[in-house]
Design brief:
Number of domains: 2
Structural class: mainly alpha
CATH superfamily of the largest domain: MFS general substrate transporter like domains
Number of strands: 0
Order of helices and strands: HHHHHHHHHHHHHHHHHH
Strand content: under 5%
Shape: globular
CATH topology of the largest domain: Growth Hormone, Chain: A
Helix content: over 70%
Largest sheet: none
């Protein structure tokens, strides 16, 4: 069982991809802590910090669709190399400004905007490259390993980042992030993707003469970016299970982000305290790690249905915040929610890789990401004013209701309930080919 679970790690290309993504995630765990304290050391203003972070998020969302279209036009690993090098350059510039005491809010905002755009170019390519290097019969395990390593890097990186920032300063924490991007770029540069075949073109019969006025058959010219985005949108909306789940997660993400990221600290301050709140959040990450291990062994013919049903457990931490904000119940609730949300995440990745054409996958991923990310700041902005108007507890209960309705809405879709997980027969040949 263990050998079967870890089988994808025998693939050298996957090992390079996981190494690059894990190193990058480790550095990215440093970056928010270091940047936050760099801005606070500079101005002491939470508003300035919100501006720097908010601009990055806004630009990131704005460029995601372009990143998806670009990833389907260019070799994905080369795009990842270029984006990693550009990210290293932006973080090195930020680190230099902070370490030389030359940073200003405007310069940090500008560099954060560039970094957000670069990340948008990286994300769809990074998500879509896995099915090119992993055979279909072990993609579920590969997706679980990917999330396991990323969560592990986040757990390790956050406390290390705090130690570096506290010990030698935020500028050095950002410099570490720049170095990790360089290391990730090296991993991606060594990643050799299998060649993809161009679309088949009908050839004229042997000996046939071209007809006057008609073009000779040739490799079709690439369409423009706008046309490719339109093609990606067509792929997205043509699959009911896809847009239903993305729409449902708009509501889930907005409700969850407002409840946990805005109202959660408010409730914690009045009840269990800030240190205990950190323990609550750590329990969620621990649940996600266990969830990835569980997902490696899950075998359901209707994998998307299973993952979507598991999403219902994310109401537990919001419910405990509103009804029973005690440390033990909140730790248990966030642990279960983390475990459950990983079942959905891995089921979702596997389902998209199975049912979306490879040459359009990055564009579809970008529409999925935009739908998910746009909702998060909306929930964060709305939660505070609503809580002021009706109270924290009613707002949290309202978030529970919205999440529940969204999950039921997703499950009400026949396509979500009946879409089948493809379980191809195991074959040695694809595994051997992927080792090349």
């Amino acid at each position: 069982m263990i050998r079967g679970t870890l089988a994808p790690l025998r693939l050298p290309r996957l090992r390079l991809l996981l190494l690059g993504r894990t190193i990058s995630a480790l550095g990215n765990a440093f970056a928010p802590i270091a940047l936050a304290f760099a801005v606070l050391d500079l101005t002491g203003s939470a508003g300035d910090l919100g501006l720097v972070v908010g601009v990055r998020t806004a630009v990131n969302v704005a460029f995601l669709l372009f990143g998806g279209a670009l990833a389907d036009r260019l070799p994905k690993h080369l795009l990842m190399v270029g984006a990693s090098l550009a990210a290293a350059a932006t973080q090195a510039a930020v680190a230099t400004l902070v370490l030389t005491h030359a940073a200003t809010v405007s310069s940090l905002v500008a560099l954060s905007a560039v970094n957000g755009a670069v990340a948008a170019l990286m994300m769809p390519a990074s998500a879509a490259v896995l099915p090119q290097i992993v055979p279909a019969d072990v993609r579920q395990q590969a997706n679980a390993l990917n999330r396991l390593f990323l969560n592990g890097a986040a757990i390790l990186g956050a406390p290390l980042g705090g130690m570096v920032v506290a010990g030698i300063g935020p500028g050095w924490g950002i410099a570490v992030d720049a170095v990790t991007f360089l290391a990730a770029a090296l991993c991606y540069a060594l990643l050799r993707l299998p060649a993809t075949r161009p679309p088949a073109v009908a050839e004229p019969p042997a000996g046939a003469e071209p007809v006057a006025g008609e073009p000779v058959a040739a490799t079709p010219a690439r369409s423009g970016i706008v046309e490719e985005l339109r093609t990606g949108w067509t792929e997205f909306v043509s699959r009911t299970w896809l847009w239903v789940v993305v729409a449902g997660f708009c509501v889930v993400n907005a409700s969850l982000s407002g409840a946990m990221m805005v109202l959660g600290p408010v409730v914690a301050d009045a009840t269990v305290g800030r240190r205990a709140w950190g323990l609550v959040l750590a329990a969620e990450t621990a649940g996600m790690i266990l969830g990835a291990l569980v997902a490696m062994r899950v075998r359901f013919r209707r994998l998307l249905l299973f993952g979507t049903a598991c999403t219902g457990f994310v109401v537990l931490p919001v419910l405990t915040l509103g009804v029973s904000p005690h440390l033990a119940t909140m730790v248990a609730a966030t642990f279960v929610a983390g475990l459950a949300v990983e079942q959905f995440g891995i089921a979702w990745e596997t389902t998209m890789q199975e049912h979306i054409p490879e040459d359009k996958l990055a564009r579809v991923y970008s529409y999925d990401m935009v739908g998910s990310f746009v909702a998060i700041p909306v929930g964060q902005v709305v939660a505070g004013p609503v809580a002021l108007a009706v109270g924290v507890r009613p707002t949290l209960i309202g978030a529970v209701v919205l999440i529940g309705v969204a999950v039921l809405g997703m499950l009400s879709s026949r396509d979500v309930r009946h879409l089948e997980h493809r379980l191809p027969e195991r074959a040695a040949a694809p595994m051997e080919e992927s080792r090349a």
